[in-house]
Amino acid sequence: MKIVATANQKGGVGKTTTAINLSAGLAARGQRVLLIDIDPQANATSGLGCEPNGSESMYYPLLGESSMEEKIIPTRLPNLSLIPSGMDLAGVEIELARMDDHLVRLHNLLATSKKHNSFDFCILDTPPSLGVLMTSALAAADEILIPLQCEWFGLEGLAKIVQVIDQIRDSGANPNVTLEGIVMTMYDGRTNLSRQVVEEVGSYFPSQLYKTVVPRSIRIGEAPSHGMTIFEHDPNGIGAKAYGNVADEFLARHSVCGPPLAST
Fold first, then answer.
1. How would you label 160-190 residue by residue, b for 16+ Cβ within 10 Å and e otherwise?
2. How many other β-carbons are positioned within 10 Å of the β-carbon of residue 88?
3. What is the value of pTM for the model shown?
4. What does the pLDDT average to over 240-251?
5. For the chain, what is the domain count?
6. What CATH number corresponds to the domain at position 197?
7. 193-214 tens-digit pLDDT
8. Do residues 1 and 122 lie in contact, with contact meaning Cβ atoms separated by under 8 Å?
9. Whose CA is closest to 253, among 158, 161, 143?
């Protein structure tokens, strides 16, 4: 099981949208996927049409009071399972901060889960902050995927999250974590700004930058309000095509072949 954290401390950049639709795209291509929502706002949970429920979140596993496997629930999508979130998870940051091993608790839970070999990929949807839950996810992940909005402020956020990844690696908490990729979101090909930001990111991170860009799309924004992935809400639209391409590119980077989304 490969553990991939979608992370960006800046909100509103398409992080949760990417976590949901990448997970759904991978599942549609035959990959066994576990999406873990560790953001107390529970947007990934509601975005999949599930009711946020603190008692079914990572709250008790992180405190050592239950196993992670007990919290896994199936979704309506084949191959996609979920550990939901809820507001109770907000309190875990305070409790974890008092513990000496708070940075490795999530890592240890996921290491145990890896041994069961039940999933091919685990996607972590992280909070838009640099708190305990975010740093725990970075310390637990094999790889980091950064969704990045096509704006200049996004570049500042990118520099910060890359710095934090380096700090996690250098501290010894997760020496092998890698920056898997950067997915540009909210791209508007009509503006010079979007093109310039993509070019700027590509000049610094040529191998990490995904070739696929996710366009600005009302349909992408609407889908979570219906509790649907973009593949369900607008299967023939530009958003579904883009996230399908992101899933294909992700699998190609991991040397995994999967059937095209349209054939599922």
1. ebbebbeebbeeebbeebebbbbbbbbbeee
2. 18
3. 0.93
4. 98
5. 1
6. 3.40.50.300
7. 999 999 999 999 999 999 999 9
8. yes
9. 143
